[in-house]
Amino acid sequence: MKKPEHYFTEEPTSEEIRHDVKARLRGRSLEFKTATGVFSYEKVDKGTQVLVKNMKVNGIVLDLGCGYGPVGIAAAPEAQFIVLRDINKRACKYAKNNIKLNGIRNAKVSQGNLYDNLGTFETILCNPPTHAGLEAVFKIISDAPKHLTAGGNLQLVARPAKGGKRMESKMRDVFGNVKTLGREAGYAVYMSVKK
Ligand SMILES: C[S@@+](CC[C@H](N)C(=O)[O-])C[C@H]1O[C@@H](n2cnc3c(N)ncnc32)[C@H](O)[C@@H]1O
Fold first, then answer.
1. How confident is the model over 56-65, as pLDDT tens digits?
2. pLDDT at residue 11 in the model
3. Which atom, in ligand 1's list, is nearest to the CA of 40?
4. 159 lies in a domain?
5. Using CA atoms, how far apart are residues 177 and 170, in angstroms rounded to an integer?
6. 81 assigned to some structural domain
7. Does the Cβ of 132 fall within 6 Å of ligand 1?
8. Does the CB atom of residue 12 touch ligand 1 within 6 A?
9. Is the CB of 65 inside a 6 Å radius of any atom of ligand 1?
10. Which of 38, 66, 84, 159 is the best mutation target for the ligand 1 pocket, counting ligand atoms within 8 Å of the beta carbon and taking the most?
11. Which of 25, 86, 114, 154 fits as disulfide partner to 91, beta carbons 3.0 to 4.6 Å?
12. Residue 26 within any structural domain of the chain
């Protein structure tokens, strides 16, 4: 039997069934085209909503693991420029389309693995691929300082009861600081600043 495909597959081969998602994020009504094979294609994920509500957006921003783009597209009006990065080619195709659909002009999509070939940012926003395992999320945290300007920050949403506390500790170990920007519905948004 064929194994079910993960949403973080680089080249999804599963059938592409299209969906439309509408959401009010950071005071704006946004529309997204999504499809099967992409994370949370039927509605904006609760963790995503909690991140978007609590995030602090500044300067040049990276939306790491952008999926079809809800975080980056919600952040774009407050950012100087935003790069949306995902490994999943189908997710990148939808993110690109959704940037246009929502009239965003200061954003681009970059398909690739984690931070490969990316420069530095003032803000990194991430709803991490927890299904890829804690080690994958730890790598996002430990490699973040190399891709942050001095004073820049990493913001990550997680479930304290489901590995989130370990992600918070890892952020404290790597950066020497971590604070909680908000908590809701079992999710917390953590921020660490590169000193
Ligand atoms: C939890 S989802 C969040 C998606 C989107 N930001 C949202 O909130 O709806 C995590 C995303 O990380 C992507 N991802 C997983 N592994 C990755 C990697 N190695 N490099 C880049 N993106 C990755 C997945 O494809 C997925 O879209």
1. 999 999 999 9
2. 83
3. 9
4. yes
5. 10
6. yes
7. yes
8. no
9. yes
10. 66
11. 86
12. yes
Which is the closest atom of ligand 1 to the Cα of 72? 6
Which is the closest atom of ligand 1 to the Cα of 6? 25
pLDDT for residue 13: 80
99, with CB counted inside 10 A (0-12, 13-18, 19+), is: buried
Residue 61: which domain range?
Answer: 18-193
> Quick one: pLDDT at residue 14?
85
CA–CA dist 57, 61 (Å, integer): 7
Ligand 1 centroid to residue 66 C-alpha, Å: 6
> Over the stretch 86-119, which tens digit does the pLDDT of each residue have?
999 999 999 999 999 999 999 999 999 999 999 9
The number of folded domains in the chain is 1
Point out which residues pair with 22 in neighbouring strands.
Answer: 31
Extract the residue ranges of the chain whose pLDDT is less than 50. Answer: 1-3
